[in-house]
Amino acid sequence: SSPTCAYTADIKNLHDVQKLLGTITWVRPLLGISNSDLSPLFELLKGDSDLGSP
User: Fold this and answer.
1) Alpha-carbon distance 37 to 39, whole Å?
2) Is Cell inner membrane set as a keyword in this record (predicted)?
3) Which of 25, 45, 46, 52 is the most exposed place for a label (fewest CB within 10 A)?
């Protein structure tokens, strides 16, 4: 069976999304994750520019 990896993140605001995407960016090439796979997260970055915004 394939190895699995779990990441638990408590996403509450824009800054949390940015931190999560930063972490994913490091492992993305190793895991074969494409930009289209991440598009829902990138959409979250298009909201309010206030880092504390929900």
Assistant:
1) 6
2) no
3) 46
